[in-house]
Specification:
The complex is a heterodimer. By secondary structure, chain A is mainly α. Chain A is built from 17 helices and four strands. In chain A, strands 1-2 form a two-stranded antiparallel sheet. Chain A has a two-stranded antiparallel ribbon with strand order 3-4. Chain A is globular, with a radius of gyration of 22 Å. Chain B has two domains: 22-100 and 191-284, Rossmann fold (3-Layer(aba) Sandwich), CATH 3.40.50.300; 114-190, no CATH class. Classes of the chains: A mainly alpha, B alpha/beta. The complex binds adenosine-5'-triphosphate and magnesium ion. Residues 63-64, 106 of chain B line the site of magnesium ion (MG).
């Protein structure tokens, strides 16, 4: 533009993913921790960390549809399940004694396809969001979970059936087996470390793609639909198109997450994709921070590691937990805590961990002049 | 006013306006009722390029309903609305927006959780066409389009003197600033027709004068058709080329501001209760 040279490059910088130097530093630290962690922690914690990394992909997906586009979905567990079983069917190996769909294809086919099949399911479901909003939409998407549970339990050729189950997709990428011990660049890695790093790469890539999406025309349209749908329409946003897109992208993320979610434990239980799983993901979004990609990741780690923390705390208590909680199990305490945490965050910190982070950051920005 | 500012808007929004011959908008005998309440009862008018057309009338006269009918939010039961030579009655709002119509709202309808910049950038939605995949990869076309949109938004921010609020979330801004952001969001669409629903409502004298100046600049620089609904008679009389007065959904007078000001029906329906109207105008 005449008379205003130099602006072009400045906007580019200003709308970069990480505008400030501080953010770059924090990202660097975060990534370094994620890369070093699997060499320090014990095997059980490593399994949890790998699960958290995969859950982060799913949480980003739910945040796209619920946090950004404002379409409350309790159906995320269903899409995770669709992804898990699509990947298992396409990328799984036949198992002895079970009549299973198992095509045994490579991960570069099974992983994207798992996402795409889940996205297709999202597109099929999305029209419901055109007619319903808020609680009604939440209820209908909840119905989806029940439908999914029924299908997963009874379609034995796909899932192995209740009480039997099946193995998830084989993690073979261009022939390299991530689900076995191996060595990369001369570094010996155990199976769990391999899976962890595979998941980490997938998570980082998908987080970047999501970050780009939300700062773009599409992301603004999502937010417009969420904040004021009539005004959005008057500004030229096609409500139908963007609600469908939000569900499709979200389900794609859920599909990819589902495909990897149980590869660490190596077992797919048809009962896993239940309402509680959906709520755990809602909790990741609410606690991490609605409409925040970094928050989704933080929320996923928080919720995935929470049971471990609870267990450790209970064991560390000076009193005998068994006698204190004779009638409730650790799993139940975990569920109660989830509920309480969601309520606490909704009331006191609606921006979630992301909001807490913003406040800490602002505090340090203002440091030594804070008051 | 410096030279750069003089051409700022036309430079930033070269696509605004239209070369269509004849009226930009033709409203013919529209009727709209809600469960027995007649909101619009046989209104007809035309707006041409470069024209600033004002609609006045007491509270509840049906002015906002006319805007909602034109922009596709409501569908009148009878009549016809032609925009850029095409029938738009019954068309969806986003479709009508795509044809080049932009509007602001009487009760601010900004995207509360977005910044001033993002609200204005959203106004560029139809001027870009990259989809999900190219947005995610953020290369080539998508990146270029986003950077250009940013440039346009910055021009509009400069024009509306919104620089201090660029990165503020709109929900936290004063009312007068929010009204300006709404104008900016509509302008970003590079419209051929701009509807302004009480842009000066609830503003103090200084803010009202600023708003009037912005509207005059838009008219002078872009030459687009505009429809203005406003209770502040001074603004209407200063700015409008043509004024339509309505009452109870019915047209009562159409003409230049001078003629309307002296029309006895208008005085009885509207100017007679000027004080009451001016006082309540801002509180809605
Ligand atoms: N969605 C709706 N449902 C029912 N009645 C409506 C609706 N919208 C408008 N009306 C009615 O139509 C009539 C005209 O309303 P409208 O908002 O168009 O008036 P207005 O001229 O814009 O008034 P104001 O100066 O107060 O903004 C009023 O009686 C109003 O109650
Ligand atoms: Mg009105």
């Amino acid at each position: 533009m005449r008379g205003r040279p130099g602006l072009f490059t400045r906007y580019e910088d200003a709308s970069a993913i990480l505008p400030s130097g501080t953010q770059k530093v924090w990202l660097g630290i975060g990534l370094a921790v994620l890369v070093i962690a699997p060499f320090i922690v014990d095997r059980a914690t490593l399994i949890l960390l790998a699960t958290a990394v995969v859950a982060a992909v799913g949480a980003i997906g739910l945040n796209l549809v619920t946090g950004y586009a404002g379409q409350v979905s309790l159906g995320h567990a269903f899409f995770l399940g669709v992804g898990a079983y699509s990947a298992a069917a396409i990328g799984g190996q036949p198992e002895e004694g079970k009549e299973l769909i198992a095509l045994g294809l490579d991960l570069w086919i099974s992983l994207p396809l798992a996402g795409l099949i889940a996205a297709l399911c999202g597109i099929v479901v999305a029209p419901v969001a055109l007619r319903l909003r808020g609680l009604y939409l939440a209820l209908v998407t909840l119905g989806l979970v029940f439908l999914g549970e029924h299908i997963f339990r009874n379609w034995t050729q796909l899932t192995g059936g209740q009480g039997v189950g099946r193995e998830p997709a084989t993690l073979s990428l261009f022939g390299y087996r991530f689900d076995l011990d191996g060595s990369v660049l001369g570094i010996d890695l155990i199976r769990e470390q391999q899976i962890y790093f595979l998941a980490l790469v997938v998570m980082v890539v998908m987080a970047l793609l999501a970050k780009n999406l939300v700062r773009s025309r599409v992301g603004r349209a999502f937010a417009a639909v969420r904040d004021r749908d009539i005004a959005a329409e008057v500004m030229g946003v096609n409500l139908t198109k963007y609600k469908v897109l939000a569900f499709a992208v979200s389900s794609f993320y859920a599909g990819v997450a589902g495909a990897l979610l149980y590869t660490v434990t190596g077992f797919l239980d048809p009962n896993a994709f239940n309402l509680f799983l959906s709520i755990a993901y809602i909790a990741m979004v609410v606690i991490g921070g609605a409409a925040s990609i970094a928050g989704s990741i933080a929320g996923a780690f928080f919720i995935t590691l929470l049971p471990e923390v609870i267990e450790n705390v209970i064991h560390a208590l000076p009193i005998d937990a068994e006698t204190l909680f004779t009638s409730i199990s650790t799993a139940q305490i975990e569920r109660i805590l989830f509920g309480v945490l969601i309520i606490v965050f909704l009331i006191f910190e609606p921006l979630g961990l992301y909001g807490i982070w913003i406040r800490i950051r602002n505090y340090w920005k203002a440091f030594p002049f804070s008051y | 006013m410096d030279v750069v500012r003089d051409r700022l808007l036309s430079e930033v929004l070269p696509e605004a306006g239209t070369s269509v011959e004849g009226p930009v908008l033709e409203v013919k005998d529209i009727h709209l009722s809600f469960a027995g309440v007649k909101a619009i009862d046989g209104v007809s008018f035309q707006v041409s390029n470069h024209e600033l057309f004002a609609i006045i009338g007491p509270n509840g006269a049906g002015k906002t309903s006319i805007f909602n009918s034109i922009s596709g939010v409501y569908e009148p039961q009878e009549g016809s609305i032609r925009f850029m030579g095409k029938d738009i009655l019954g068309g969806k709002p986003d479709h009508i927006a795509r044809m080049g119509m932009a509007r602001t709202f009487q009760n601010i309808e900004l995207f509360a959780n977005l910044t001033v910049l993002d609200n204005i950038m959203l106004g560029r939605h139809l001027r870009m066409n990259h989809g999900v995949l190219s947005s995610m990869v953020w290369l080539g076309k998508a990146r270029k389009a986003e950077m250009h949109a940013r440039e346009v938004a910055e021009g509009i921010i400069q024009f509306l003197e919104l620089e201090p609020f660029r990165k503020s979330y709109v929900a936290m801004l004063p009312y007068g600033v929010q009204k300006r952001v709404e104008l900016g969001r509509a302008l970003a669409m590079s419209p051929s027709l701009l509807l302004l629903d009480e842009p000066a409502a609830g503003m103090n004298t200084e803010e009202t004068e600023d708003m009037a100046r912005f509207i005059m600049d838009i008219k002078r620089e872009l030459g687009i058709g505009m429809i203005l609904v406003e209770h502040d008679m001074r603004v209407v009389m200063d700015l409008a080329d043509t004024v339509l007065a309505i009452d109870f959904g019915k047209p009562i007078a159409l003409g230049t501001p001078d003629v309307i000001q002296r029309n006895p029906d208008v005085i009885r329906a509207y100017l007679g209760q000027d004080h009451a109207v001016v006082e309540t105008g801002g509180t809605e």
